[in-house]
Amino acid sequence: MAALGDFQSDFQMNLSAAKRALGIDFELKEKQLEALESLYNGNDTIVVVPTGFGKSLIFQLLPWLMQGKFKRADPMIVIIATPLNSIMHDQVQSLAKRGVSACYLDITGSSGNTYDYKR
Hints:
Largest sheet: none
Order of helices and strands: HHHH
Helix content: 40-55%
Number of domains: 2
Structural class: mainly alpha
């Protein structure tokens, strides 16, 4: 069994790599770190924080964080459900500006955008 210190250093190392991949050069908030660590540990996680707190950053970092954990060549896929089409659209636009492939599917199933994931 790995020691707690080993886990912490692996988590911190993979988090640093994930932040670099997205060009994030600032410190995360405590609740963001708690959520990422919980997800990293494989826990079901609910994050309840105010609008504008930075929830999106949690799921934006997660593919690269888990890429490091599982030693994969590519970032892992994350599926997000949101209550509003406008939120999905904004998130896809934000990720595209960072060079991240993302897509969404709205309730009609026709106005979202998709992409082919190449293995």
